[in-house]
Amino acid sequence: MRVPGEPALRALIAALHDDLAAREITDADLAAERAAILASWNAPLRTAASCSPHLLPACRHLDAAMAAGRNHPIVSAIAPFLPTLSWRYGYPEHPEWPGLAERLAFAPLIGARAIFTDVAAHLGLTLVAPETHYPLHAHPAIELYLVLSGTAEWRVSGAPFTLQPPGALILHAGGIGHAMRTGAEPLLALYVWRGDLATAPVYVAEDAGPGGAGRASAASN
Ligand SMILES: [Fe+2]
Q: What SUPFAM superfamilies does the annotation carry (predicted)?
């Protein structure tokens, strides 16, 4: 399958950069992360010659999530990539939350094994089926999420769930546990990873603090 080229990627990066640049951000950590992302991907990225699209069961909700977010410029910019995405779920079975492989899916666009390669910052999509608890997990990478569609509950270790609507920015410091919980709508969100891009996320024990104490299992994505 032919891969959308650099122009399509540039349109996506521009949509993200425009969104971030237009925001009033007062939190110092979030402002620093925005500045780092605005400085990312300014050089040409290596493009995969071909790709092997792969769907997971959670992708049955992708059309609804895309339709719900269709007015967001980033959603429009990711649309050309949808036929080429390789959706993955790499965690082992969670001891308390079975069946997550049917309900969660992740698609890298810029990553180690993605359509485009970069060593400083990765970018991709997270899809969560309705009525799903994506339990606490952690990774050393710094993560910025931008919600594209679906209002879901989000929390970090030691804090309660709060509703995050489309357009919300959520910053996860490296090593801190974080979780999402969907209701009737699927959740589609864009993630950006920086820092340690080689270490996979792991499920952590409920309310494990920063550093990921109580790690239960490792994922391959
Ligand atoms: Fe994460």
A: RmlC-like cupins
